[in-house]
Write a structure and sequence with these properties.
This protein is of the alpha/beta class and 265 residues long. The chain has a single domain (36-245), classed as 3-Layer(aba) Sandwich (Rossmann fold), CATH 3.40.50.10320. It has helices at residues 15-21, 46-60, 80-84, 90-108, 126-139, 155-170, 187-190, 204-212, 220-235; strands at residues 36-41, 64-69, 111-114, 143-146, 176-179, 196-199, 240-245. A 7-stranded mixed beta sheet has the order 3-2-1-4-5-7-6, sandwiched between helices. Helix 6 (155-170) links the parallel strand 4 and strand 5. It starts with 14 loop residues before the first helix and ends in a 20-residue tail after the last strand. Bound molecules: zinc ion.
């Protein structure tokens, strides 16, 4: 699969993706070979709340999806575990969070890999960077999804994005990197303006089930339902997930053949 066909392969990809592939908006989509999608997520729930619907759609379309978590989130994102179990040890928190991470991936249909490189601070040594690069090279993704490169309001997410970009470069492939949502409420401050949307309406219930496995962060279901509804309103769908492409390709057409707005039907 060509990388630019990635989102067109989603069950309900939007007209923007159709414009990129040069197909007419209302034409039925040709079948595509499955993509290999790698998600590099800081914490156990980040990838799920921001891109879980897209990943579910990709899996249903036959894509191979893998998520790599850099940290268990044992401090900053341990949430109710710390409230409900005062004095709980860090190894025990890590065990709980890792179980949640893999449970969410199972609902999505993704393979998982936990790096466990610490939380607040997340430490990415040169050796760990080489490990990440090697794992990227081994998986051979068509697409890499990761945190917004300018999420400077959350250092662990920012470092994860930078590490993903650097590791992809070290892995020496022609990877297509796309950034998912920053933490809800910070998109405006961090300049996250989506240039690609994926309609996740048909798989939204399954995304909610995946988010519910992340019991240390029960609020994400409400937060990212709101986020997905807002992105849906922006794109003329009910629920949508939004992305920014690392290096968007220009749309080239022979003629201006009418409206290409996301909200056009
Ligand atoms: Zn996080």
């Amino acid at each position: 699969m060509k990388r630019r066909e990635f989102f067109a392969a989603s069950l309900a990809a939007l007209p923007l993706a159709a414009a990129q592939t040069g197909t007419a908006m209302e034409q039925p989509r040709a079948s595509h070979s499955p993509a290999r999608v790698l998600v590099i997520s800081a914490h156990p729930g980040d990838y799920c709340s921001r891109a879980g619907g897209t990943l579910i759609a990709q899996v249903k379309a036959g894509s191979k999806v893998k998520v790599i978590w850099l940290t268990h989130g044992e401090t900053n994102e341990a949430g109710v575990i710390l409230q409900q179990h005062p004095g709980i040890s860090l190894p025990e928190i890590r065990r709980i969070r890792e179980a949640e991470a893999f449970a969410s991936a199972k609902v999505i249909g993704a393979e998982g890999q936990m790096m466990g490189w610490g939380d607040n601070p997340l430490i990415v040594t040169p050796e760990r960077m080489q490990t990440l690069a090697r794992d990227i090279a081994d998986f051979k993704p068509d697409i890499i999804l990761t945190h917004w490169k300018n999420e400077v309001t959350y250092a662990t997410h920012w470092l994860t994005s930078k590490s993903a970009i650097e590791a992809a470069q070290l892995a020496n492939g022609s990877w297509d990197i796309r950034f998912f949502e920053p933490t809800i409420g910070t998109a405006t401050r961090t300049g996250f303006v989506p240039d690609e949307y994926v309609d996740i309406t048909d798989v939204f219930d399954q995304k909610v089930q995946a988010m519910k496995t992340l019991t240390a962060q029960p609020w994400i279901v409400e937060y990212y339902t709101t986020c997905n509804r807002m992105r849906g309103l922006e794109s003329g769908r009910h629920y949508a997930e939004a992305f920014v492409r690392w290096a968007p390709r220009p749309v080239v057409q022979a003629l201006l053949n009418g409206p290409t707005s996301l909200t056009s039907r």
